[in-house]
Every structure is written in C-alpha cells, then in structure tokens.
Amino acid sequence: MSEEPLLTVEGLTTEFTTDNGVLTAVDGIDFEIERGETLCLVGESGSGKTVASESITRIVPTPPGEVTGSVTFDGQEIISMSESELKEIRGGRIAHVFQNPQDALNHCYTVGWQIVEAIQTHEPNTSKQEARERAVGLLNDVGVANAAARLDDYPHEFSGGQKQRVMIAMALVTNPDLLIADEPTTALDVTVQAQILNLLEELQEEYNMSILFVTHDLGVVAGIADQVVVMYAGKVMERGGVHEIFDEPSHPYTRALLECLPGKSRSAEGIPGSLPSPISPPDGCRFAPRCDYAVEECRAGDQPPEEPLSESHAVSCVHYQQGYDPAVIREEVVQEDGATTGGVSSD
C-alpha cells in the first residue's frame, strides 16, 4: 500500500462569475484523505463545503464556475485532466452521493433500470441479465429488503431512507476508492439517519473505501469521522482528529458550532449573525464579525495562517500566534457534575 494520501487538495479555489461580481465560494483550502479514512468537511450552510466537494471531480458548471489549485488523486492531478481522462475517475474511482435522492433519481424509470444503466455505462461488455443480477446484489448490500422484487419499482414507491440506499448502491457500482457523501442524511429522521451512517461504516470496511463526508451537523461527525476540517465562508478555520476537535475545540467558530448541539447553550438560537458575502468578504478572519473574541488584528489583512497545535491539529486564529494568549478562547467549560473540561466530549 502506498504511503501517499489517496487524495491531496492544495489551494483549491472555486469562483463564479455573476452579474454582481466574482463570487469566491472556496478560497484556497487544503486537506488530505488517507486510504480507508473518513474525513468530515463541516460548517454552516453557505460555508463552501458542497462546492469544495464538487470541485474535486470538476462537476461544478463551467462557466460560470472556475476551479483552480491542485487536486491529486492516487498520484494523478485532476484539475489539469481532459474531460475524457476525468471520466475514467469521476463516477468510477470517485463516486458521489448527493444530498437529495428525491431529485437525484429519475422518477420516470425504475430503480433497477437506473442501476443497470450505471453498471453498463462503466462496464459496457456486461449483459443486461448480468447487470440486473449485480443490481440485486448491490441493493442487498445496502439493506433494501426483498431486493429482487423491488428492482422494478419506481423511486416514488420507496421511502426517503430507501431512496438514499438506492443512491448509495448506484455509487458502489464501480467499487470506488473514494465516496463523496454530501449531506446524505439531512432530509432523514433521526432513526433512519443512524441506519444510513451505520451502513456507510459497514460498506467502508467491506469495500475498503475512503469517505469525504460533507455535513453541517457536528453530532453526525462524532460517530463517523477520523479527521475533521471546519470551513467558514470558503476558508478553513480548524482541522484535526475527531477527538482533538471535540475535546480541544480551538477556533471560536468550532466552539460555537459545538455549542449549537442539542442540549448546549446555543442549541435554540444558533450563532448570532450571518455569513459574510462571498463577493466582498471582510478583511482578516472571515469569522471576526461574529466572534466574541475578535480584536483589532482579527479584522485586518488576510485570514490568519494556520497555527499548529499538534502534529495533526491546527487552527487559523490570531490568538494562537506569538504574543497572544489562547486561554482567552480555550476557557474551561463547567459541566453539570462540577467537573471542568476544555471542550465537548465526543462520546
């Protein structure tokens, strides 16, 4: 097995030309995904998570979009690939599961027809009968009961959770090395959400996949992530192992997100304020206008460079630079039993 990461993203920037100016949805972000690892891209709606995930395989519409930077997948540079070269990877070695299966599935065709089409598109020498047999196996793999009989049902005959299982089955057609899952549980109730998350974990082990999981819900992250990248307004605010992020949240934005979890101090009202305009973002730290700890230096220049807190943990905040005291942010949180902790438990 290669020691190189499966996916390396460096300086990824995605801009859209609009009537009002250039909108920068993703602004020079970096991250890596190891083989067999789950990395969660986290942040509020509008933080640039979905655009970042779609930029990796260049499914962002061009124009008006333009993707620059470097995306290296298994040693191959994706950004500079021709469309014909990219087709060998997109949908093959890298598969997407999108947020809303209701829109992603074609309601004019049976789910079996759609899975068979995906199989024969990637494996044109596969007969229809062989493809149908594989489709039944894939539906069984993702937990669709009575899969052989349901193959000829239409999407409207499936529940929301079952539709998402069908979408996952279609993504697994090519046995991908990387599965990009964009908010795959957002529209599902808590019970079905847990089932889908457990399914992804089981499939990851069975298929030896890496997963890029996009979500706004840190509660979901705690159960599935190996690594976490926290995004805000197109920038990375913090990155680290899942336990580092939950036990030692270091950026004020990360802490605010954790405080929005059920039962926490901001669970009802959320984070005051709103995200800045991606056309004219503020100087300095993007989060400064909403930050309780912002000082004058936070509002000048560019986004602060990431300061390493450990080998795998880094934060983009001036309070961690030399001459500042991060204790202002990393104050202890008093628990109900009187004990104190610097963060929020991921258990």
UniProtKB/TrEMBL annotation:
Molecular function terms, GO-annotated: ABC-type nickel transporter activity; ATP binding; ATP hydrolysis activity
Swiss-Prot/TrEMBL keywords: ATP-binding, Cell membrane, Ion transport, Membrane, Nucleotide-binding, Translocase, Transport
Any one GO BP annotation for this protein: peptide transport
Gene3D superfamilies: P-loop containing nucleotide triphosphate hydrolases (3.40.50.300)
Main location: membrane
Compartment annotation: Cell membrane
Domain ABC transporter: 7-258
Catalytic activity: Ni(2+)(out) + ATP + H2O = Ni(2+)(in) + ADP + phosphate + H(+)
Keyword Transcription appears in the UniProt entry: no
Membrane topology designation: Peripheral membrane protein
EC assignment: 7.2.2.11
InterPro entries per UniProt: AAA+_ATPase (IPR003593), ABC_Ni/Peptide_Import (IPR050388), ABC_transporter-like_ATP-bd (IPR003439), ABC_transporter-like_CS (IPR017871), Oligopep_ABC_C (IPR013563), P-loop_NTPase (IPR027417)
Gene Ontology CC annotation, any one: plasma membrane
Quaternary structure, from the entry: The complex is composed of two ATP-binding proteins (NikD and NikE), two transmembrane proteins (NikB and NikC) and a solute-binding protein (NikA).
PANTHER family: NICKEL ABC TRANSPORTER, ATP-BINDING PROTEIN, OLIGOPEPTIDE TRANSPORT ATP-BINDING PROTEIN APPD
Official protein name in the record: Nickel import system ATP-binding protein NikD
Species the sequence originates in: Halolamina salifodinae
